Amino acid sequence: MKARDYRIPIIYIVLGVLWITLSDSFLKTMESYLTPEIARYTASLKGIFYVFATGFLLYFLLKREQKKLAEGNNKRMTEIIDKMNNLVIVSDIKGNITWVNHAFVKVTGYTMQEALGKTHGALLYGPKTDMEVVKTLSKAINNKEFFSGELVNYAKGGKEYWSQFNLSPMFNAKGGLEGYMSIENNIDDSKHKEDLIVQQHQKLKAVSWLNSHEIRKPVASIMALTELILEETDQEEQKELVKYLHQSTMDLDLIIHQINEEAAVK
């Protein structure tokens, strides 16, 4: 056990010994000032006084140790949260920021002093922040409920970043609301990948449209002209049909080049 774990019993024993050794002489001195009826009960009064005094002393010492233990646990918890890669923001019941961790300072550029007393909206929201999500978030806060969502936030220099956040109300032991904690992740990378997927999808749609609409016309012309050439016996007519066939193949080649360029651009 740690040394401080023995502190309370040691104090209790020392005071008990002092009381036992000194109380008799003290009470004998006091008996000269007391009536015989009251002096008769000094031994009992000594015990009663000892019980009350040590009871209050133990209560005071235990409360003090519990407070120190809670402060130590809170300090350790704060140190752990401060080392997390997630952005952590603690706010009071009015929404004013009361604490942020190191990851928040690193990502946003705001120091602890700059963030204290500000609301999320005043500090982090900007032109591209989705106000519909903010309205739903505000409703959850008013109802003291958990809420999860995604928002565009803004760092100190105005740089945008996507944040996936989980906001939870914090209650004390009696169930009273003490504030809110928001744990956030910077999801810029995943959003960038989503944009690439969307772009790829648009590319495929464009290529599919060109394939289904633009290519169909010259291919149909080539097929029709080929049949006419095979059936035509007049050489002059065949030469004219071959000219049209050549033009259709040139149109088809041009469309294929357009598809390749469109896919490359997108």
TrEMBL record:
Limits of the PAS domain: 73-144
InterPro entries in UniProt: HisK_dim/P_dom (IPR003661), HisK_dim/P_sf (IPR036097), PAS (IPR000014), PAS-assoc_C (IPR000700), PAS-like_dom_sf (IPR035965)
Top-rank taxon: Bacteria
One family name in Pfam for this protein: PAS_9
Enzyme Commission number(s) from the entry: 2.7.13.3
Gene Ontology MF, one: phosphorelay sensor kinase activity
CDD domains, sorted: HisKA, PAS
Keywords (A to Z) from UniProt: Chromophore, Flavoprotein, FMN, Membrane, Transmembrane, Transmembrane helix
Name of the protein in its database record: histidine kinase
